Amino acid sequence: MRLMLIVGYEAWYSKKDCSCRPHVARDLLARSSLSSTEIAISCGFADQSHFTRVFPDVTGIAPRAWRYARQPQVLDPG
C-alpha cells in the first residue's frame, strides 16, 4: 500500500510493518508548520491520539517536545 503525504513525502509500508510512519512524522514535525493532527493523518495514523501514543515509543520523546527541540530558537537582540 502506498501513502502519499501532503508535503510531497512518499512512504511505502505494509500493514505488518508501519515503522516508517513515525520517522516520516519526525521529519514533518521538524520541517513543516503542519499541526500534529495533520501530520498524524498524513502519515496514516488513525488519529492524533494514536500518533501521540506511538511516536514516543519510536523516538523516546513526545511529538510536541520533538518539534520544539528542533525548531530554531529566536534570541532577543535586546
Would you kindly provide a written description of the structure presented here, covering whatever features stand out?
50% of the residues lie in helices and 8% in strands. It has 78 residues and is mostly helical. It has one domain: Arc Repressor Mutant, subunit A. It is built from 4 helices and 2 strands.
Number of strands: 2
Assembly state of the chains shown: single chain
Average pLDDT score: 75
Secondary-structure content class: mainly alpha
What can be said about the biggest beta sheet? 2 strands, antiparallel
Q: What is the overall shape?
A: globular
| Helical content (DSSP H or I, runs of 4+) | 40-55%
Radius of gyration: 13 Å
Note the gap between the termini. Answer: 52 Å
Total of domains = 1
CATH topology: Arc Repressor Mutant, subunit A
Amount of beta strand: 5-15%
The strands making up the biggest β-sheet line up spatially as 1-2
CATH class designation: Mainly Alpha
SSE arrangement:
Elements: E1 2-4, E2 10-12, H1 20-31, H2 36-42, H3 48-59, H4 63-70
Antiparallel strand pairs: 1-2
Helix pairs in contact: 1-3, 2-3
Name the features:
4 helices; 78 residues; 8% strand; single chain; Arc Repressor Mutant, subunit A; mainly alpha; two-stranded antiparallel sheet; 50% helix
